[in-house]
Amino acid sequence: MGDKNRKRGRKPKNSDASTTAVPQTLDTTATDDVVVDPASDNDRRPRLRGRPKKHSKLSPDKPEKRSISSSGPAVENGSVELALVSGNGVTLGFSGDGVPGGAVERVVPAMDAVVKVFCTHTEPNFSLPWQRKRQYSSSSSGFVIGGRRVLTNAHSVEHYTQVKLKKRGSDTKYLATVLAIGTECDIAMLTVNDDEFWEGISPVDFGELPALQDAVTVVGYPIGGDTISVTSGVVSRIEILSYVHGSTELLGLQIDAAINSGNSGGPAFNDKGKCVGIAFQSLKHEDAENIGYVIPTPVIMHFILDYEKNRAYTGFPILGVEWQKMENPDLRTAMGMKSHQKGVRIRRIDPTAPESEVLKPSDIILSFDAVDIANDGTVPFRHGERIGFSYLVSQKYTGDNAAIKVLRENEILSFNIKLSSHRKLIPSHNKGKHPSYYIIAGFVFTSVSVPYLRSEYGKEYEYEAPVKLLDKLMHSMPQSPDEQLVVVSQVLVADINIGYEEIVNTQVLAFNGKPVKNLKSLATMVENCDDEFLKFDLDYHQIVVLRTKTAKAATVDILTTHCIPSPMSDDLKPGI
């Protein structure tokens, strides 16, 4: 009967013929968080100087790296991807069962609240700190919230010189003002002074933290076109994630919706049309496909309330300790723990943290704000889930107090600790500040930061930089709030520094017998030195000796030769 009613034409395929879906392939290159790569057909600017992009497989001894979705695909003038995300095109439309009127229909409201962010960046030149790099442009996504404000990613507007926003369906770009940049949580807040921009826009509403397998829809302006794009997926994991841009660990959502270059800063909606997060990074690995990450609402609300409370971003506090798991029963017994007691052991305490005044190494942290900590460092998190106890700390604000219970020499002690943000000896970011420098007799002194290491050694700086600098990056703690790691960045060749030309990125330990605390203290000591010689004690037991009068006189000629406007950055000048 069915054969008689079948229309003429091509014979149907056999019902038992198997069909194989061909997945889109992602770029499997492991990347760090600052890479310049063309992101559109219109972009033909060559890659910025640095190490060539490697396409070899990750070696077993190198950890996999997460990469941040670009602050701008469809990028103009050489957009920066703060970690590459494959541009495999975008999926336009809504998800469901693929059939109009299907059983699953998802409606995304407040689509008009999603805007396209255009940013012009001018990065500092950390290797030549008296200069800036050539400007470039990028585009990303953002969305409107209450109070005439717009949220996007921090890496989308990093080192900005101009930011413009364009509404959906509009041909006008509006100048935006950056209100706050949260480097750690990778969120930035913008506003527009032009009243016309806010006409016809309804802000998005925030929803609760989704559960596993909840559907999410990511909306933004990724590569592959100029109009708005929608991709869908589900929440596949909720845990403490590494935020690549901020070099921090905060709560994050893992989803299987495609997050491509340009999705950065776009909202992720649930089935009810509520915003449950901000798209911000993707995992780039040869064994992974469609793994994207979303900043969840608890982190977003922390950023917003922090700004509303302080009229500025103050950051996420952390507990300034390094701790060890207590899963070994012999270790617990040796530390005096009873069978019902659980916790983690303090290995080291940051000397600059308020916790150093009350906590001691080998204390066992039993609870934080009355929440018991397990031997693996986790705490209960919703039904049937556990999460690292740093989540409890991240819910606090800088300056808040926290109740900590510890076990010390078989005695349980309780402390009320004031939390603060953490400062590293080698900071992960300069947070918009210009790099500092000081020049004497052709010796260029500067302080070390992660952007500086990346500028000197490329995106693989974790493997290419000197071992001693990497050791300090990973393990050293500052002994005072203003301590810096000062190095001789390079030597500008001149007659006075003959024999010292090969000194590069070597730490300065002391000047004329006095320890070097930071770059400003070094500049002050050199400028005020009346001794016959300038003597610098360097790492690796090297010394540099220069005659004082000759060195200061030669500095003027060296600055003129290299077109350097000043022997020191503005922040090092007296009275500043």
UniProtKB/TrEMBL annotation:
The keyword Hydrolase applies. Residues 1-75 are annotated as: Disordered. Residues 1-12, 46-57 have a biased composition (Basic residues). Keywords: Hydrolase, Protease, Serine protease. Signal peptide: none annotated. This is Protease Do-like 9-like. Residues 58-67 have a biased composition (Basic and acidic residues). Residues 426-571 form the Protease Do-like PDZ domain. GO terms for biological process: proteolysis. The keyword NADP does not apply. Residues 25-37 have a biased composition (Low complexity). Belongs to the peptidase S1C family. GO terms for molecular function: serine-type endopeptidase activity. It holds the Pfam family Trypsin_2.
